[in-house]
Amino acid sequence: MSNLPLKEHKEHAGWKAAKPFLTGSLAGMTATCFIQPVDMVKVRIQLAAGGTGGAQGPIEIVKSIHANEGLKGFYSGLSAALTRQVLYTGARLGLFDKFTHLAHNPEEKHLPFYKLAGCAMAAGGFAAVVGNPADLALVRMQSDSLLPAAEKRGYKNIGDALVSIVKAEGAMGLFGGVAPTVYRAMAQNFGMLAFNAKAKSALEHMEFGNDNIRVFTAAAIGGFAASVFALPFDYVKTQVQKMTADPVTGKMPYTGPLDCAMKQVKAGGPLVLYSGFPIFYMRMAPHAMISLIMQDQIKKLWKSMGL
């Protein structure tokens, strides 16, 4: 039995339960503040490849955003991006810690890869559902300036976006594109968290460098793997979430993520799903690395504070 008084024990238990999720949220928000401009360019490349029009390459898109929207254009949807990190990254990193703890066998020094993969994909799937409203708002805010004047949504911030979506599409409208978002999150988490954890344990076994070098190297491996596995799902997710009904027929261009993927591949070939890979990697890998490194540092901070 704990020697803590009942009230203190409850507070301690509450903090223990919340700590992994708070750690993940702080890590993700820190990474997003650095990566948001790159994410903006990535989304614009995908929209151009998907038929929205406009510049195709990252340099042309950077010039276009700067000329038409100024420096603030690179941070369009930042409030939605930060909200998404609180919900999505907080949940996926927190749940991954919880799931790996539950999956751990006392006889195992390190979890086998299949358990890491299962925990990573489960955490990503659950977190994607929680974070979908903010993710939907983010994609729409980032793509709004590319739409014809009559179709612009003009969301002012994340709160305005969410309220407007509910008014126009109902509460379930907040979960538009949730299926491709879940698939993308599972693929991303499989690459990012499972490969990061496996690389870290392998580097420890090899006695490679010191702790900081191992954390950085494992994060780099996880970031690359996340980019490779997640981009096709991310591309489809972007197309589904930004679609609007045809003004004449009232029909949506895609009936779902599979229909979207098939039409995109038919129109542009299989490699269209990897449109903007360099910029996606520049966005995904650093974000994953910063998140994982910050998560490790925040955990050390809690420990140094006795929390």
Automatic annotation (TrEMBL):
Any Pfam family: Mito_carr
Entry GO terms, CC: mitochondrial inner membrane
Membrane-related topology note: Multi-pass membrane protein
Superkingdom of origin: Eukaryota
Transmembrane segments: 215-233, 271-294
Solcar repeat start-end pairs: 15-102, 111-202, 210-301
Keywords, ordered alphabetically: Membrane, Mitochondrion, Mitochondrion inner membrane, Repeat, Transmembrane, Transmembrane helix, Transport
Annotated PROSITE patterns: SOLCAR
Location relative to the cell: Mitochondrion inner membrane
Family: Belongs to the mitochondrial carrier (TC 2.A.29) family.
Protein name, per record: Uncharacterized protein
Organism of this sequence: Polarella glacialis
